[in-house]
Amino acid sequence: MKPSANPSTSPNPMRPESCLIVLPTMNLRLWILLFALILHIKPTFQNVLKQDSKFSPALERDELLKDVSFLPSEGLMTGFLTKDMPARYYFLVNKDHTPVTIRVTPCESPLHWRLTFLKIPQTIERDNTLHQDSQRYPHRKAHVQLFSYKGNGEEAYFTANSSAGLYKLELLSEETDTSFQVFTSTSQEPNTFFPGLPLDPRVDVISIEQDRVTLAWKPSPGSFKLGSKFEYCVFVNRLHNFKTLCATEPSLQERHRKGSLHRKDHWDTEVTKLEKFSKKHTAGILNEIQSIMKNLQELKRDASMVDKTFKGLQAPNVLKPDIVDGQRVCVGNRTNVTLSGLQPGTHYYFDVFARNHEKKTSSAYTGVFAETKDREKTRFSKLEAEEMTHILLMSKEIRFLKLQPASSNGWTWLFIHSCVHKTNLKIIVKGKIVVSQSIVGAQIFQLPEKADKYILRLSASNRGPSLVKLFATNTPYSLPFLSLPADPHLTVSSDVSTCSSVTMSWLGTQESNKYCIYMRNIEENLDLRLIRKHQNSCLSPNARLEAERIVCKCFQGTSPWKTVVQENIEGLKPGKLYLIDVYMFGQNNYVFKYPSQVVKTWDLC
Hints:
Jelly Rolls; five-stranded mixed β-sheet
């Protein structure tokens, strides 16, 4: 990961800030220099913030930056952020050429964080030395931004040849209150602290039944050396995949809270029954009943005992009912698991984490989703109107859906989006096929006949599983898109391309939509056919890096013949391959991704 410099401008004097500091061991002279630098950090830091337009304006508010402390030179730290309340941490490097690793893991919500290097002055004659030096030598850079990231993925900054000085880490959560983890190291091999991932970190679905799913994955490199200190944990839920293990903790805590309330109601009911029963019996039996009541009250107060009691009633990999919030099952060093207790015909998301107990670190495999088989082989499933329905079709699978509009007197519109492979659609009204078409990408249908019932027949191709999204409505303005491009493909204008730029064009619509362009460099030895083959037009740009985004713009065609959107991308390298993606946003932030396009700049100009 290459650091990039973003120096600050001349300082602006302001009052010093108090810091809560955990002091590592170092010589006295370096501490004097360090404290003098901290007392003068604020002026230059203010201008650094103003120059960094990508960072949140909340960090410019001086009164918010109060909680400041030092990061450990080696280890993992867990912290908490309040929404829009930034935090600042310092990391001290005593010697030049020291390897430095700083790894940040978001938990409940995405984080915006950045790392800045603060140079320690060699001489300090009086309190205003830094301010005078900045006026006498304005070309000297006292602050250098090394790294910046915004998202919910785990990211790290590493350099094998750092400079001695003070490093400043700033974190901000703009969505919700959240916890986070920061790992710091000055070791030559910091990756040994985290479990490794195989070259292919995907989780494979081996088999699917009505109430169970079997998963398998490749082993973590070096896991056998850790023995009992290492384990794999599988997290399953019905909402979405998770990128970090700590992100699953709120779901587990919410489930534990609901379970505690349920157990409380259960014990209260049992105690009430015993109290009523005790009034009808003699004093001898009453003593025995009161003893039972006492045991129940003690069991109720001892939450850990209750958890152990319930856990003992469950098989190791049998999940409890209602796992919307999520459940976690740890399987030791096994690289496969069968999860039972699932609901038939239900969509689940599965994540696998390699976990190191000793160092309290983890690494995430690439998650997977699957839908269990229906309990009964019903011929028709109901397609609800005004709701986005997700259907997973396995290879060559056929699925029948029944749509009953709210009113049979009005027209009905159907939005269908085949995310990966081609899907064949047939719409049947009163035994007659009124629509028969192959769907690639997204399409909108105005059903040709007014009817009180429609039968939809979906059949998958033999190229693998596919996810299909459907939305039916009686009002076209409720559709994710009012219209779709006539030809959803990207075109490269080779006549205006150069060694350092390419010009892309695509068809938009007559409605005003937002378009975002993302680009990343790829290697020539990659199989380009594989990139084109595995396109997923349902992917959103949330998982993309901020550095990959080129531009976002709104466009509205003036007529059906004038809907071409064009964008010139500059700053490229000669003779290099680039993968370009364009995302179109509709209502409720629904995303349609144009097929990816691989372009190559000219070698010679």
